[in-house]
Design a protein that fits this description.
Elements (H helix, E strand, L loop, with lengths): L1 E5 L2 E4 L4 E8 L6 E8 L6 E6 L8 E3 L7 E6 L4 E6 L8 E9 L3 H8 L9 E2 L3 E6 L1
Parallel strand pairs: 2-11
Antiparallel strand pairs: 1-3, 3-8, 4-5, 4-9, 5-6, 7-8, 9-10, 9-11
Length: 133
């Protein structure tokens, strides 16, 4: 199983980016996919999660997102997207995707500090997002 996060880059404040999380070796539709980010010198934090299609694709967002980001799926492409609008310099980080079965329980647990990141079985390699002021 391999996960790959892509789509990062260097943008200016207020710009948009769409990140992709693609998978090989599994059907992503059957999994909840979480996005996390880690800025230099900071702990990794939860950005967004979308549950599996069997759990109605329920979505969750970190409070700092405040309506700027949107997570979605394209099952035909076995890909989950994170559309990021109105980017700010504080959004600069390496963004990672991770999968869990069915719902976003691990994402919520990791985001709240209840679970360790090791609860996830698979993490994708990160993609760098840099927002200049």
């Amino acid at each position: 199983v391999q996960l790959q996060a892509s789509g990062g880059g260097l943008v200016q404040t207020g710009d948009s980016l769409t990140l992709s999380c693609t998978a090989s070796g599994l059907i992503l539709e059957s999994y909840a996919v979480g996005w996390f980010r880690q800025a230099p010198g900071k702990e990794r934090e939860g950005v967004s999660c979308i549950s599996s299609s069997s759990d109605a694709g329920t979505t969750f967002y970190g409070e700092f997102v405040k309506g700027r980001f949107a997570i979605s799926r394209d099952n035909a492409k076995n890909t989950v997207y994170l559309r990021m609008n109105s980017l700010k310099p504080e959004d600069t980080a390496v963004y990672y995707c991770a999968i869990e079965t069915y719902d976003c329980a691990i994402f919520l647990g990791v985001s709240s500090g209840i679970y360790a990141e090791s609860e996830y079985d698979y993490w994708g390699q990160g993609t760098q997002v840099t927002v200049s002021s």
